[in-house]
Automatic annotation (TrEMBL):
Keyword Oxidoreductase recorded: yes
One Pfam family linked to the record: ABM
Molecular function GO terms recorded: monooxygenase activity
InterPro entries for the chain: ABM_dom, Dimeric_a/b-barrel
UniProt-recorded name of the protein: Quinol monooxygenase YgiN
Lineage: Bacteria, Pseudomonadati, Pseudomonadota, Alphaproteobacteria, Sphingomonadales
Residue ranges of domain ABM in the record: 2-91
Classification via Gene3D superfamilies: 3.30.70.100
Entry keyword set: Monooxygenase, Oxidoreductase
The keyword Membrane is assigned to this record: no
Organism: Rhizorhabdus histidinilytica
């Protein structure tokens, strides 16, 4: 499994548009990508220009295929145009039961 955590700040006055675009993308990912086990966008309660993405892909192939999906490609330019600066992106390895036993190291 591959986890992705991303933090995005929108340009002033662009948060509503970004929310609309990413909510639609979220719906499309959930409907069409069975390898995307979790794909959730959240908006900060204390800062309406700050968005958090939590993504969990079943395989490296599912993760690699995600950006090339037609609905993702279709919204990318408009979505990134709303973003201020560079997003903070972290790839993560989810903990599993193997970590209880110390087998994953």
């Amino acid at each position: 499994m591959i986890g992705v955590m991303m933090i995005v700040r929108t340009k002033p006055g662009r948060a509503r548009e970004f929310a609309r675009l990413t909510a639609k993308l979220q719906r499309d990912v959930r409907a069409n990508e069975p390898g995307a086990l979790i794909w959730q966008v959240m908006r900060a309660d204390d800062d309406p220009d700050l968005f958090y993405f939590t993504e969990l892909f079943a395989t490296a192939e599912a993760h690699a295929a995600h950006p090339g999906m037609p609905y993702h490609v279709a919204m990318s330019a408009a979505g990134w145009d709303c973003v201020e600066g560079e997003p903070e992106i972290r790839l993560c390895t989810p903990l599993t039961d193997r970590d209880i036993e110390g087998e994953s190291e």
